[in-house]
Amino acid sequence: MTAQRIPFPTVDEVTRHCLTDDEPETVHVEIHLPGRLDPGRLRKAVREALSRHPRILIRQAAGRWWHRRYEWELTEEPDTEPVSWPGGTLEDARRRAVTDNPPLSASPPIRIEVIEQGGGCVLVVTMNHTALDGPACLRVLATAAELYGGADNSPAPAPVRTGGGGTAPEPPPANSNWARPARIATSGRTRASGNGMHIADLPLPTRPKGSPYTVNDQLLVATCLMVGRWNREHGQRAHPVRITMPVDDRPRTAEMPIGNGTRLVEVTFGTEERAAAREPADPAAIERMLRATAARTRALKAAPRPQLGFSAALLTAPVLPVGIRAAFTRALRNAAGPWASTTLLSNIGRVPYPLDFGEAGRASAVWFSAPARMPRGLSVTTVSTDGRLQLALRWSHARLDDTAGNRLGELFAESLAATALTDTEAAP
Asked: pTM (2 decimals)?
């Protein structure tokens, strides 16, 4: 019987065109549990979850350069066992997650490693970002948790956003859209390949009750402050900071579409906002920056836009053979490199599922990390669990060494704290 085939969507195709061996296109997810998992039960639960979300059971179909499309081939069963107990430390598993990409030639293109530590364990999940993103994988893992533990893992209702009692200010004029954005200043003895990663557990930033800005806006501002402070420390001239932000409109129910489902928007911080990045921090400047950011993000989220913009939709139109489109896409990406955004901030938000694995317990912490390809060379990924913020910074070793990356993590924590209030009149 011939396997069903699905043409690559735009995001999958562009990512596939630009794959390289020295910059792994992985998404890493780790779920910390207070108890231990039974190998047989977990493998059975994962296989059943994959069958309930069959879009994850895919491999790249064989093709030639003159074909008009890359295609996914759906399989009825996994080609390989996705769950393993490899032994070793959590640091070892994290290192594999940012260096060893699951192949597209085997279904499913994910790897689930269980690392036991103390009386509990950690699920370290690595997926090939060409095939799917972190929220889609988390939906599958929530189904596996429900099948393993028998508890309801339905998503909690989305939190109600309370406005500021009025209309947020209009976004300032975008006077920096055509200027070259800032780059994270290169530092340390960098290597040519691979990613490094910094993991931190931080308090959620507070904000005034009824404020027009959200935690996501605070994260955007903190990212901008981190870049400005780092570059100033390294003597780099100030440029506008442009942050790519994924927006995910998919439902979190069992019917959630699996794949790469986010659309990308760009939030620009112009040179007029440099005052907020000075030391010591200027609370009034940061407050203005937060309110302006809230207006920008509202407008960007509301505007209809293809996932990667209109140019990507044109690039992936199946008019020319896929090999020619791939060469053209790579050349265009290299030429446009100086105008690529400064960094990517992917805020998953509150984990919507209990991730309850029965006697193994509920997830006590969850981390994500996104790829850090050049020319950006840095990604910031956040998620919140039990009132805490889990932060993962990833960087390309072509731009930063591990000492520099860890220093950036410290700067982010300081910058995020600068966006938070210390009084008692704060929103959760």
From this structure: 0.92
